[in-house]
Each structure stands twice: as structure tokens, then as C-alpha cells.
Amino acid sequence: MPLYKNYFLVFLFLIPCITSAQNLECCTSDKEVEEAITGYWKIKNDASKSIYHYWFENGRGNVENVIRTETTGEYKPVEKSHSHIYLKKEDATFILEYIYKYGNWTSVLKKLNATNLTLETNGETTVYYKVQF
User: Domain span at residue 29?
Assistant: First the structure.
């Protein structure tokens, strides 16, 4: 087989790896990812009032669904919506493992910067934007 055909086959193999790679513009370490995720996130193009509050304490992550109160403009937790999160790094990929009372799941961080977060869970991609007070 000619040499250029071998290069072409290698190139075809690398395309899926390149397109599915993470785009973490802010972070290379666990601590940087924790700092970037901490805050309030809303699903892009979603009409619901749900906002997700992420925070980390002593290396243990938390997330809960919150809603904005009409009277005070603050966020109030939705009852029974709290999950624990463990941040894992497999090879060069950051993964969030959610531990919830009614089940567990994992999400791969596809994109993370100061204003945008993209997670892939069970092959489905969800895009979030950071909400500011």
C-alpha cells in the first residue's frame, strides 16, 4: 500500500478524536475546573425557570436546582434536588459523576469557560450559560 494511503487512513482515524475533544478554555487542573463551574447555570434556549447552582467544598462538589424568587430576586433551592458531584479526570477528559438519592449518572465536560458550559450525558449534549446576579 502506498505511503500516502497510510497517512490518509491515519487522518480519517483522527478526525473523530479531534471533533469530540474537550474545549476547556479555562482549565487544566481539577481546582481550575471547580472554580470555573462554581456558580449558577441555566440551560440555553430553555423556557423553564430552573437554574443549577454548582459549588465545591473540600474537593466535594454539589449541585442543586434553584428557582429565582419573585419578591427578593434571590435563588431558592428546589426541595429534594441536591446531588453530590465528584470530578474525575480520565486521560485528558474531565468527567462529572453525579450521586443522587434516586440514581447516579456521569457527564463529560465538552466545553467550559467563564460563561459557557457544555455537558454530554448518555450521548446527549446540553449547553448552559452562566447566570449573573
Answer: 24-131
